[in-house]
Backbone:
């Protein structure tokens, strides 16, 4: 394959400006106020696929936000790569913690990104990483070096659970038929330590509601005489972990995959500084399940975390009130073999059992998905590894991620395809947080590396 370096130098500014244009569209799928912006983003993605060289690009309507499909078929007898990504983004809240407006992208240098990073919501998750694939296709098409067929499926509901993607996949199996699925919605260890994500955790996300009296009460007249839903909820949540930070839900760990000492030893080879980790988060100590390292806790072990909690009076000044209701949102990250629907049922049964007689409890499941592990002995993984070796000059480390991409297991079930996760973001890129960013170097490195995956996968598939 002709070296892409010259093409990158020539088109660097355009590639950056095109991404900035896409990042300016506030495609927040969780908030109906941005519904037209989400639609606008889908149209922008369609246009970019056509400009990059797809022969077909179309907006596929769903019961929610549309899926953008594109393809470039050069020979049906050659392998086909299906690229998945998403154009929707997380809400930018809390806005006041951003150093610059979340949908007015700016480039500025950081200690980790001295060459500059693009600061904007969606810069890394996932517009920046998705757009690397669009520009990689452009390079291969414009230089007549596309070695196989490519299809794109870019959705607009990933950040709200991909509710309509399963139906679309099930109804379009022939259209989406492929030999391998390629996703860049993960990260790597460091810019000088490339890695390939080989495992993802599953997810169960629920909302709980605790109701006490039929109205808010005066805390002086009723305090101590009736159950306070906020107090009760706090105790119930605290009871979900024991003194070793082990989750107390009966049956929760029954199907958890136990890694051997040898596998854990291999994981431990990845460069990691606990002191740097604490410094980056401005914490004095790490916290988690007893008997496991930090990298094990956030990748191969299941977790339960409160994502939000509210109730009662939170305005200025004081209001002495016992709230009628209290609420919390809770997510459970799951490991392979744990079924998210089964875990959700176990949570519901256990959480309801923790409530005293003075309150009622409602558990509302939101969304979830299965965990996933990809083999490292297949041609696709070998092709990805070789691609990183070509552009980084070193072999990437296989690494399990603590995050969840529930649709990966769906793809394997419906399309019978394995998935390769080639991420170029870093843990420090603040995805889902204020000041999300994506290094310019990482963005361009992804565009440089992806074409080699196509080349090596095609060669290994012969």
Residues:
């Amino acid at each position: 394959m002709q070296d892409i370096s010259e093409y990158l130098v020539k088109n660097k500014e355009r590639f950056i400006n095109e991404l900035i244009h896409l990042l300016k569209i506030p495609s927040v799928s969780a908030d109906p106020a941005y519904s037209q912006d989400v639609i606008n983003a889908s149209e922008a993605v369609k246009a970019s696929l056509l400009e990059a060289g797809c022969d077909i690009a179309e907006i596929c309507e769903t019961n929610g936000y549309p899926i953008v499909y594109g393809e470039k078929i050069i020979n049906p007898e050659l392998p086909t790569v299906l690229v998945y990504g998403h154009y929707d983004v997380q809400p930018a809240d809390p806005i006041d913690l951003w150093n610059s407006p979340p949908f007015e992208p700016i480039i500025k240098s950081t200690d980790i990104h001295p060459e500059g990073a693009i600061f904007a919501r969606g810069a890394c998750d996932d517009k920046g990483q998705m757009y690397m694939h669009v520009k990689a296709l452009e390079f291969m098409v414009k230089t007549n070096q596309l070695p196989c067929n490519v299809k794109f499926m870019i959705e607009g509901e990933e950040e709200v659970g991909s509710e309509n993607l399963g139906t679309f996949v099930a109804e379009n199996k022939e259209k989406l038929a492929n030999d391998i699925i390629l996703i860049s919605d993960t990260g790597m260890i460091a810019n000088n330590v490339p890695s390939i994500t080989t495992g993802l955790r599953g997810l169960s996300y629920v909302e709980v509601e605790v109701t006490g009296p039929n109205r808010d009460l005066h805390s002086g007249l009723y305090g101590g005489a009736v159950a306070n839903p906020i107090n009760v909820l706090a105790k119930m949540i605290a009871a979900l972990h024991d003194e070793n930070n082990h989750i107390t839900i009966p049956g929760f760990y029954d199907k958890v995959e136990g890694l051997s000492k040898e596998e854990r030893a291999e994981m431990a080879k990845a460069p990691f500084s606990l002191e740097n980790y604490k410094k980056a988060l401005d914490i004095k100590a790490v916290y988690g399940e007893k008997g496991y390292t930090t990298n094990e806790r956030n990748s191969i072990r299941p977790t339960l975390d409160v994502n939000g909690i509210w109730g009662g009076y939170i305005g200025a000044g004081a209001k002495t009130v016992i709230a009628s209701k209290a609420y919390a949102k809770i997510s459970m990250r799951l490991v392979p073999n744990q079924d998210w629907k089964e875990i959700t049922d176990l949570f519901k049964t256990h959480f309801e059992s923790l409530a005293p007689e003075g309150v009622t409890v409602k558990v509302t499941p939101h969304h979830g998905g299965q965990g996933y592990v990809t083999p490292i002995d297949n041609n696709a993984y070998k092709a990805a590894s070789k691609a990183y070796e070509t552009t980084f000059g070193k072999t990437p480390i296989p690494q399990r991620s603590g995050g969840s991409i529930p649709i990966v297991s769906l793809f394997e079930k419906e399309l019978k395809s394995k998935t390769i996760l080639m991420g170029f973001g870093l843990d420090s890129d603040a995805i889902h947080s204020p000041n999300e960013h994506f290094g310019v170097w990482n963005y361009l490195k992804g565009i440089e590396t992806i074409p080699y995956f196509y080349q090596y996968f095609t060669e290994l598939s012969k």
User: Anything to note?
Assistant: Residues 176 and 288 are 41 Å apart (CA to CA). The mean pLDDT is 95.
